[in-house]
């Protein structure tokens, strides 16, 4: 009997030894965190997260606790070993602590062989810490299903914080409509990259996507266009209706989904131009009275809101009131780009308004530009009175822009933008670097048809927002945004193809200090990020891996010699 018991104990000890050997043989995934954290210091060893207790300090708020709990559920599910969440206990595990000394959005991670300690002073800080932890684990963490792997972290100390407080991505749902599920998928990947603003471009000449209770024709009429221009020739139309809009509940759902991921949704009501879809629904809002049609071609349209009549302002204030009810963001984007003044100059009401306001062409600006200043200032006053701030495209600078506006630059960089922008807080979104509707290779006949020009990931990565900016202007740059305009982006797959992997490069421009940015390191990390996209089931562009085109229509990239011949042949 005794002998059998001793033999059993011996077997058990051998088994324990075997287990401990297994765990010491576990290896951490290559460190490929994007955006690269500000300070990273490695030491030897790993910490096994699978089955570790998540210990949350009592001072950590309920929202952060809920986000942390979701991460523990995710880890438990993929690793197959449960990570319970406990509050205020001592002992080993993954510990989350409130560190009030850290700035907003900053976080620290301290991993030793025995524990991992995560500190932050804010909800977003915990979100970002968890996104960094996820990137350090096997990519199966993004898959949501049980999967073999070493769920271990390398021993490392990380101290991280963003360079800019505004880190945005615009998606134009006016030119093409995308489902709520697709918007959520985009928010999921934005959150991986610590983007914190989703600029939702909800209204356009070619489609009105915002459900209004007071103006139902905006969606009944304005959300559907009859035909779509399919290449650069405006007579080439796909003769099908294209439409769609978001209900109020759906938009609220998106706001809450984004907010859980640390993302603020800033809606855009583009005014007073880019309004043909609204004019088609309510022609009395235009200078000529119409009739108007929802645009089925691209380009800047001459028909804009008539601002010489009070009912236009009533309409705008009503819509903004409905928007504020759904979107709690501090900022509302009021557009202001590409407003031809032709109709105003010919409209008796608009001309009367200009005369009443004493507007004339002076100091290099037209009376029409000053009339747009009047519109901007009225809307600003209205939104300020409701506790909101405005952002608008850089055209709002033309004339006399009031104080307190944030200007979004899109036509130039620090070197060539209208220098008056530096008198305002600004968000930099120069088209040469940040317009991600552009081609990703020179081989345009192998790409899905796009708006033109060329913006490879390397170029986006190389954008330096401070270049050419005077010192006083640097202080007022809130951040950087990439814009995905969607004239030709007619499927959700194509949308993702344009976003990825450029979103990864964008995140380093938005988050990293210039000295932390390094393209070769970024490029090497992208191999693992490609696996993340695969695991999340996202479509992405493969130019970094020598492949061009959408799935189902992929080509190997030409060799440099072939490419040179091809480009010569085109000239
Ligand atoms: C813009 O590209 N019109 C902002
Ligand atoms: Zn008018």
Please, could you describe this protein's structure?
A hairpin with a 6-residue loop joins strand 20 (547-548) and strand 21 (555-556). Helices cover 35% and strands 18% of the residues. It has 18 helices and 21 strands. The relative contact order is 0.10. The chain has helices spanning 2-24, 62-79, 123-136, 180-192, 217-220, 248-260, 276-281, 310-326, 342-346, 348-356, 367-385, 431-434, 457-461, 471-474, 492-499, 502-511, 519-536, 560-570, and strands spanning 39-48, 54-56, 85-87, 94-98, 107-111, 116-120, 152-160, 166-172, 197-201, 203-204, 207-208, 224-229, 237-243, 264-268, 331-333, 389-393, 406-409, 425-428, 477-484, 547-548, 555-556. The strands form five sheets. The protein has an eight-stranded parallel beta sheet. Mean pLDDT is 95; it is low at 13-23. The chain starts with a helix and ends with a helix. The radius of gyration is 27 Å and the shape is globular. Helix 4 packs parallel to helix 6 (248-260). The chain is an alpha/beta fold and 571 residues long. Acetamide binds at residues 337-338, 393, 410. Acetamide binds next to loops.
């Amino acid at each position: 009997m005794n002998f059998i018991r001793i033999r059993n104990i011996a077997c058990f000890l051998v088994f324990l030894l075997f287990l401990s050997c297994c765990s010491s043989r576990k290896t951490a995934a290559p460190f490929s965190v994007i955006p690269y954290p500000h300070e990273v210091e490695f030491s030897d060893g790993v910490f096994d997260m699978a089955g570790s207790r998540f210990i949350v300090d009592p001072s950590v708020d309920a929202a952060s606790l809920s986000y942390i709990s979701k991460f523990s559920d995710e880890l438990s599910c993929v690793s197959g070993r449960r990570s319970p969440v406990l509050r205020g206990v001592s002992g080993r595990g993954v510990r989350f602590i409130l560190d009030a000394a850290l700035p907003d959005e900053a976080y620290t991670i301290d991993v030793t062989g025995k524990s991992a300690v995560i500190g932050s002073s804010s909800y977003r800080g915990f979100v970002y810490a968890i996104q960094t932890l996820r990137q350090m684990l096997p990519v199966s963490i993004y898959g949501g299903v049980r999967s073999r792997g070493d769920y271990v972290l390398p021993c490392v100390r990380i101290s991280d914080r963003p360079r800019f407080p505004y880190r945005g991505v615009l998606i134009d749902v006016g030119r093409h409509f995308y489902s709520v599920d697709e918007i959520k998928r985009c928010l999921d990947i934005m959150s991986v990259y610590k983007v914190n603003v989703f600029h939702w471009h909800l209204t356009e000449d070619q489609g009105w996507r915002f459900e209004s209770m007071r103006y139902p024709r905006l969606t009944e009429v304005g959300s559907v266009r009859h035909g779509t221009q399919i290449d650069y020739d405006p007579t080439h139309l796909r003769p099908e209706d294209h439409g769609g809009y978001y209900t109020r509940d759906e938009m609220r759902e998106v706001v809450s989904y984004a907010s859980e991921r640390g993302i603020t949704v800033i809606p855009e009501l583009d005014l007073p131009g880019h309004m043909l879809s609204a004019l088609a629904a309510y022609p009395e809002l235009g200078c000529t009275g119409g009739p108007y049609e929802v645009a089925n071609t691209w380009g800047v349209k001459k028909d804009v809101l008539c601002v010489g009549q009070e009912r236009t302002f009533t309409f705008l204030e009503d819509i903004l009131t409905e928007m504020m009810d759904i979107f709690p963001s501090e900022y509302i984007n009021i557009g202001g780009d590409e407003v031809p003044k032709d109709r105003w100059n010919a409209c008796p009401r608009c001309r009367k308004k200009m005369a009443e306001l004493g507007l004339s062409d002076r100091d290099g600006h037209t009376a029409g530009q000053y009339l747009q200043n009047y519109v901007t200032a009225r809307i600003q006053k209205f939104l300020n009175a409701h506790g909101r701030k405005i952002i608008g495209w850089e055209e709002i600078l033309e004339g006399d822009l009031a104080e307190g506006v944030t200007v979004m630059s899109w036509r130039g960089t620090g070197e060539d933008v209208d220098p008056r922008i530096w008198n305002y807080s600004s968000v930099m979104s120069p088209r040469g670097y940040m317009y991600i509707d552009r081609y990703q290779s020179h081989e345009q006949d192998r790409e899905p048809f796009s708006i033109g020009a060329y913006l490879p990931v390397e170029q986006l990565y190389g954008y330096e927002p401070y270049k050419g900016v005077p010192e006083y202007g640097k202080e007022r740059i809130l951040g950087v945004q990439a814009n995905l305009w969607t004239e030709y982006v007619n499927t959700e797959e194509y949308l993702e193809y344009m976003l990825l992997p450029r979103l990864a490069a964008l995140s380093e421009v938005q988050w990293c200090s210039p000295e932390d940015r390094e393209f070769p390191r970024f490029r090497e990390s992208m191999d693992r990020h490609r696996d993340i996209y695969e695991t999340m089931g996202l479509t992405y562009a493969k130019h970094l891996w020598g492949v061009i085109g959408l799935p189902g229509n992929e080509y190997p990239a030409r060799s440099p010699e072939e490419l040179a011949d091809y480009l010569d042949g085109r000239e």
